[in-house]
Amino acid sequence: MSELTQSTAQQWQAFFQEWPASIPSRGIVTNSLNEQMPFKGFMLKGTMILLERNNPDAMGGRYILMNFSSIDSVKLVDPLKETDATAAGFVGKFAKM
């Protein structure tokens, strides 16, 4: 595994391990093959994440087990407050419009 991939995988792992209670545990994970997987909950084990799908996929799959190194992006579907983002370890400010 390349150093960049390992670093990214570790950052995704830390993000999910430290998921703030103020942010609902749901969203959409996009993997390295550009597949989007909506989830409504998750569990962690070592370098793997078990995503609970909102609905079964076309084959009937209700859960997705994947390595953190496969995660390309995570979309959060609920509105965020600046305090939610800082609780997740982000720095900076949201626009005040």
Brief characterization of the structure:
Helix content is 22%, strand content 32%.
How far from one another are the termini?
43 Å
CATH class designation? Mainly Beta
Percentage of residues in helical conformation? 10-25%
Summed over residues and divided by their number, the pLDDT gives a mean of: 91
Helix count equals 2
Do you know the CATH architecture?
Roll
Major sheet: arrangement of strands? 4-3-2-1-5
Quick one: overall form? globular
Structural class: alpha+beta
Strand count, sense and barrel status of the largest sheet are: 5 strands, antiparallel
Instruction: Classify the beta-strand content into a percent band.
Output: 25-35%
Q: N-to-C SSE series?
A: HEEEEEH
Low-confidence stretches: none
Query: Whole-number radius of gyration?
Result: 14 Å
State the domain count.
1
State the total count of DSSP E strands.
Answer: 5
CATH topology name, in short, is: SH3 type barrels
